[in-house]
Amino acid sequence: MEELVGLREGSSGNPVTLQELWGPCPRIRRRIGGGLEWLKQKLFRVGEDWYFLATLGVLMALISYTMSFTVGRVVRAHKWLYREIGDSHLLRYLSWTVYPMALVSFSSGFSQSITPFSGGSGIPELKTILSGVVLEDYLDIKNFGAKVVGLTCTLASGSTIFLGKVGPFVHLCVMIAAYLGRVRTKTIGESENKSKQNEMLVAAAAVGVATVFAAPFSGVLFSIEVMSSHFSVWDYWRGFFAATCGAFMFRLLAVFNSEQETITSLFKTSFRVDVPFDLPEIFFFVALGAICGVLSCAYLFCQRNFLIFVKTNPLTSKLLATSKPLYSALAALVLASITYPPGVGRFMASRHLDTLFDNNSWALITRNSSPPWPAEPDPQNLWFEWYHPRFTIFGTLAFFLVMKFWMLILATTIPMPAGYFMPIFIFGAAVGRLIGEALSVAFPEGIVAGGVTNPIMPGGYALAGAAAFSGAVTHTVSTALLAFELTGQIVHALPVLMAVLAANAIAQSCQPSFYDGTIIVKKLPYLPWIRGRKISSHRVIVEHFMNCSITTLAKDMPLEEVVKVITSTDKAEYPLEESTESQILVGTVRRAHLLQALQAEPPSWAPGHQVHYLQDILAGGCPMEPVTLQLSPETSLHEAHNLFELLNLQSLFVTSRGRAVGTVSWVELKKAISNVTNPPAPK
Amino acid sequence: MEELVGLREGSSGNPVTLQELWGPCPRIRRRIGGGLEWLKQKLFRVGEDWYFLATLGVLMALISYTMSFTVGRVVRAHKWLYREIGDSHLLRYLSWTVYPMALVSFSSGFSQSITPFSGGSGIPELKTILSGVVLEDYLDIKNFGAKVVGLTCTLASGSTIFLGKVGPFVHLCVMIAAYLGRVRTKTIGESENKSKQNEMLVAAAAVGVATVFAAPFSGVLFSIEVMSSHFSVWDYWRGFFAATCGAFMFRLLAVFNSEQETITSLFKTSFRVDVPFDLPEIFFFVALGAICGVLSCAYLFCQRNFLIFVKTNPLTSKLLATSKPLYSALAALVLASITYPPGVGRFMASRHLDTLFDNNSWALITRNSSPPWPAEPDPQNLWFEWYHPRFTIFGTLAFFLVMKFWMLILATTIPMPAGYFMPIFIFGAAVGRLIGEALSVAFPEGIVAGGVTNPIMPGGYALAGAAAFSGAVTHTVSTALLAFELTGQIVHALPVLMAVLAANAIAQSCQPSFYDGTIIVKKLPYLPWIRGRKISSHRVIVEHFMNCSITTLAKDMPLEEVVKVITSTDKAEYPLEESTESQILVGTVRRAHLLQALQAEPPSWAPGHQVHYLQDILAGGCPMEPVTLQLSPETSLHEAHNLFELLNLQSLFVTSRGRAVGTVSWVELKKAISNVTNPPAPK
């Protein structure tokens, strides 16, 4: 009997049905069932967020791959058209130029007609969003279609326009994450949580980078460096997870589509592993980094000023305001005319990144043999793409650099969805290649170190140049890691990292980054950094820069006065004081709630009604929110800045002995920081 | 005349000496001089911190290299002794065991005699220091010598004890950084700055990891993941800079010492680049990750409990309390006896990490040929080290794993400076190798995918296993990157990352990390995490858990009462209220300052003296410090936790309507978090 009771209750105390009792091994079966139940619970407890991130990664990989596939087809169609159109120069020229013009003007026209935000890379806007500023509608899902179609057209115009897809893709990814987050919140019915949302957006940005380059490590690190000034290790893990899902899916699709045999890097290299570079070459790598740093300053300066010029010049600004597609088409015409292959374009058409990472020295190969100018690019000899009998490798590389410099700047002014990272990366690779080839000619036998000589590999310099230049332009270090992930070799770890650091040292001390520059030009709200040793930021205190003109409500205020205050100002919330006399801050009231409560109340002059003061309304159900964090007038600028940056705050109240004496928002902080950095001239 | 005036004033307005005027090209020379001056100023303005970091990197590399060099010599001497001592078994056994016993007992005795903190890895203590807790003397420079000598002895006992150097090296590096920081503060005369100091310590931790592995990327990322829960991008750049200097110097020394031809990775591999693995193998990699995750849970569980057992068992705890060297010697005797080569040790002596990453399948090589048991290790055939005719590769690998599992746990209890990362890394590599070899036997032709078959490379699995196991034990993801930096190849990026994520998913949901476990066992103060979706932490508010029993002083308190309060409590600082009646918080007073002021004042009962109240003392010059940040009783646990974590706070005052109503420190927070995570059982 006791046995039966034991069975009936089971180890988990569940009652046992008769059927279970008669089946074979009821105990074991029950235990297995219990174990599965536990596992299910465990998975769902840990899960949810992780499922969300995995979905995001896979979804973005699908979009990225579909986009690449479509773009590939359109580009192939353009090539076919150009080849088949006959020998008439006019027809060929038209087929070469009209195609990208049509695509670009459609791209800018279509995306601008749906939403005015869709131009550019989107990373500067995301940066301000992640720093806590609310940009209305920027992450709305309705922008998604505009951005996808626009970006596809941009990419389909190919090497003529020479723009990439990282920036818009990050924006797309964040949009989807925000949308999925809203859907989830609605289905679960859980209250919206700001910090939770931000975590997801940071992870989404990582997915964006990772699915474009299939590079999870650098995807996460690059997005952290570009987007935020602080990050939590927890976010970093989530980013890794989502980025890995995305990158895996992206590469998997390539394998399933028989483009590749297995999941490897995008631009495989085959550098010597045993002695990839001789020790004295480290010096050249650092010098290359410095050169890239100086070039990046020049690029950033010209780019920013040209952008301002285009915005202020009467002709172009009018064109941009009234007919964006026309401006885009004109810019595309200029770019396409220059890349027209029978013209100047023969020196610069269809340059691929992987050719630049070739580990043979083209200068040495072509120096003695002087091979003929190839009619068609030969997949075996990568250098043919860059070779010209009269100008040599150096001529074509230098010409490429000079032309691309201004062409890139012109292309960035076109108001359409486009990424600016990849062209910069390729530009840097060309700089590195040029210097590498020069070194291989200067030291044809290699640099003697310890008896054994190894020829110089210009490909390594191209790698370092790409990482250093793109790192300097974006003010990031993780481009070094990106270079390794893209090529699958990490033998140049130290020299490339040193080049990137040298380039960053120069660029960061002279120019704002590409994204910060755009933020400045677009006049987006942002919080500047307080750089390292600005010790004076510890001496400036909140009292010096806070906004003292605050409109407060007091609990014992007559309702007429409250109405007067509300109608004369339009803040979203008002600080609430205990009484007009004591001025002790007790909380905040939202304007919306207050309006609702006031409208619900019959007017106070109605006969027989008691409500005369604000506290009556509050007692009647108008919600009051607590102030969870307060500054003192003595808080230093440094501390306040840290708080705002770390917690992504919008504004804080300053209280002195319990009284609200002012507020601080990023506007005041920004002003105070610029005063510390560039003290106003004494009058 | 005007020309002369122009010359005299110069463009910079400086007067010109006659000598300058007569030299060639005075203007140009002056301009060059001005340019140089500008550059110098620029370098020093940007500099300082960077020079500090570079010095730190170079210094640590020198120490690391010197240590490696010494250790190498001592190990070689031991080998020589063992070889030359003759054929007597007793003598050989003694020479094998006494050597490490002496080293280990000296290591623990010497380091413990100088400072009791020097045992273990030091990373758990650093973690608590960086979270804002002050551990007195832990970073004192006097511990430096003890730790260096102790660590050298530990490493010199070689493969017998099988411990690494990462942890203590990070501790050394942080010690030096703290010392250099104090020296700098003294010479410059600048006031101590807490946040500045912390920045340096974080960078120093990165240098520590980077100079041991010569791996700057993973050095920075690993130290971030292990040390902190939040990180600023600015610190991350500094870390990269310092780590690069350190890693460069470390590898440079190896080149100068003719050990290597150039600066490359420590354990070079030569995996196939074109098709490093077939797509279906991804599944095996993830499975390997899961296995490593489960194993790491077992390891962490056993290790923590054995540590507790050793501390609570009467015999061992007495031994550890009274004679640490004896305990160490006994443990070393056990370990050395097992690794004695003519005994069981023949299956496990002198295993090197690079052999495990060999890209040939040993099982396939040895399956058919059955080569004889080698007398001496052959540098050409790496697998000979792991081969035994009777037990095959699988037998030796499995035996190695089983034995090392408990030997490692035993070794971690020895109270001497030692790192526990490298042995775990090697253990993981062996796990991966075992599974890789099994797969290569199961699929001798490779896994068919798309017509072409490629043999399985067990080395890739060893790499994934090392990264996954060490990642799971330390709860980090960047071990994957470390594996790539150590081997110089990144072709396995995705599978290794997926294995590491799988291992981490299991380990993080079941066990605290190795370092957190040590923190728990050593009862160090720390702030636990609030994991992802613990949404309830938003609902718990400060009021529920704050410490309400605060001792306050009021300005209108009579001095007798102040003296009474001070003598009855011993807090470092007291909150100061406006008056006993209003209780409005106005600032804090330090006990030390108060004591000084009280002693300086003549007693209030002296005739003709006016001082009766605290406010008189304050007016007389006793400094009062402002409260720069206050919590409200309504602040949520989540917010408070974030604040403490982000700003490394010690304690905060809670004010309600200006009145101090309580304090929150990490003790209260920890209790509140544990209540949220494991709600107390209802009674």
UniProtKB/TrEMBL annotation, chains A, B:
This is Chloride channel protein. Gene3D superfamilies: CBS-domain, Clc chloride channel. Homodimer. Interacts with BSND. Residues 546-604 form the CBS domain. It comes from Myotis brandtii. One of its GO terms (cellular component) is basolateral plasma membrane. GO terms for molecular function: metal ion binding; voltage-gated chloride channel activity. It is found in: Basolateral cell membrane; Membrane. Belongs to the chloride channel (TC 2.A.49) family. It comes from the Eukaryota. The lineage of its organism: Eukaryota, Metazoa, Chordata, Craniata, Vertebrata.
